[in-house]
Amino acid sequence: MHFLGIEIGHAATRVVALDLEAATVAAEATAAHAWVEGLPDGYREQDPASWISAADHAMRQVLETLGDARGGVAGIGITAPTGGMVVLDENNRIVRPAKLGIDRSAQRQAEEIARAFGGAPGLIELCGNPVDAGSLAAQCLWLKQHEPYHFQRAARLMTPQDFIGYWLTGESGIEAGSAATTGLFNVPQRKWSGELMEFIDSRVFDMLPPGISPLQPRGQLRPGLCRSWGLPDGVIVAPGSGAAALAALAVGAAGNGSVVADLYADGSLCAISDRPAVDFQGEASILCDASGRWITRMGMANAVSALELVRRHYGWSNAEYEKALTSTEAGANGLLFLPYLRGEITPRLPDATGVLHGVTLDNFTPGNLARASAEGLALGFGYGFSRLRDLGFEPSGVRVSRDAGPAFHQLLADVFGVPVASVAVSGGSLLGAAMQAAVVYFRLNGESLGFDEIAGYIVTMDDATRRDPDPQRHEFYQDLLARQQYLVETLHAGGFL
């Protein structure tokens, strides 16, 4: 039996086939889609019709690889990166290109919404999160103010994943993991915010899709698509969800207290909880996960950039970087690197730049630079880990989304003070979408398969990557973390960071 995942990415659409019996990915394919060109700086838009074409192309490639096994396809899941807005008219025609979550054109509208509700603290009190420029909330207000004709034509507003789900099934709907990314959802209470929608326009509530349970299908794959793709009748389509929710599922974080360190480019530190853990300091966002729980997410914009900077500078391979890292002592002989090369989300320093502090004639060596870059990144995760503890989490270990090498895993364990291990294979949110489809399918057919059960079945930990913390080094890094945060606060207060 196979379950398919579809991910509408920023540059391409990907499709994967999960062989449930073998617990492996049986096939995968990618089809690119283009940006709308000639837009002002900060605008990032795409034609949703190009997603349909790309999804169809990638799906056919995957099914061709499956061959006769395509007859065992039972369900499809969908995901997409956070944010974005698709606008349809009353005849379900696309009104304009879709704005994506990385589009910053609605920054002024996000600020306008914040002012109306007492700034970020007021929005956190109201809904659990501030409103981001890439959210459907800010982009909807932008549409009303900048393109009133298009706004008047608008009858449906959807996230990218819900648009594809609508195309697959003809059924409109949104589940909490997607709704939580719109900026219009009261995440702790899992309901739409009437105050926010009324502020934007009284029509907004009627434009949004109806809610779907995370345990119920969105609908069945349209018969025309079943015939076109050579699939059996009755293939279910799962409700879909945001990338953060399904990426957590794909690394096995489906139970209360699970913590995941995502070491990819747009990294994060995520914790799953049975109760909403709202960060009133505004550093962590709160989302809904795929299983009916909540995710507290600390974004880490520089999860790999600091390491890549040093590797690129010296022309090192991963093995050479690892060797340089292990050849130096903890603390890099006094060299301290603040790795905010792209600004930072946690701590909230959107305009920060990187800082190399404590340079002497003796410590400015390739090995110490490798050590300082790795420690700067690990301490950044350590700061996020300390904030999770402030919010009531007491993790006994941390799952890592990819194997970053034994030296860096040991460094993370020493900073966190708990064991660290990576998953054997990480399929990201795309694999999570296929896993969601499997849970929904079995639930629909009377089998009480849980998200934690499928996570335990599909996701295995790579025991060879496990590293336990050294108590003395943990104490050392706690002191170094305090020093790093003092330096951050001092430089930021002085306008230098």
Major sheet attributes: 7 strands, mixed
If you average the pLDDT, what whole number results?
94
Question: What class, by secondary structure content?
Answer: alpha/beta
Terminal CA distance reads 53 Å
**Considering DSSP H and I runs of 4 or more, what fraction of the residues is helical?**
25-40%
Oligomeric state of the chains present here: single chain
Keywords: Kinase, Transferase
Domain Carbohydrate kinase FGGY N-terminal: 4-249
Protein name: FGGY family carbohydrate kinase
GO molecular function: kinase activity
Structure description:
By secondary structure, the protein is α/β, with parallel strands linked by helices. It has 18 helices and 23 strands. Helix 15 crosses helix 18. The chain is globular, with a radius of gyration of 23 Å. It starts with a strand and ends with a helix.
Describe this protein with a few key phrases.
single chain; 497 residues; alpha/beta; 7-stranded mixed β-sheet; 6-stranded mixed β-sheet; 18 helices; 23 strands; 18% strand; globular
Itemize the secondary structure elements and their pairings.
Layout: E1 2-8, E2 12-19, E3 24-32, E4 45-46, H1 48-66, E5 73-80, E6 86-88, E7 98-99, H2 107-116, H3 119-127, H4 136-146, H5 148-153, E8 156-158, H6 160-169, E9 174-175, H7 176-179, E10 185-186, E11 191-192, H8 194-200, H9 204-207, E12 211-212, E13 219-220, H10 223-229, E14 236-237, E15 241-242, H11 243-250, E16 259-262, E17 267-273, E18 285-288, E19 294-300, H12 305-314, H13 318-326, E20 336-338, E21 355-357, H14 366-390, E22 398-400, H15 406-416, E23 420-422, H16 428-444, H17 451-458, H18 471-493
Parallel strand pairs: 1-5, 5-14, 5-15, 9-12, 16-22, 22-23
Antiparallel strand pairs: 1-2, 2-3, 4-7, 6-8, 10-11, 13-14, 16-17, 17-19, 18-19, 20-21
Helix pairs in contact: 2-3, 2-4, 11-16, 12-14, 13-14, 14-15, 14-18, 15-18, 16-17
Pfam family, one: FGGY_C
Keywords: Kinase, Transferase
Organism: Luteolibacter flavescens
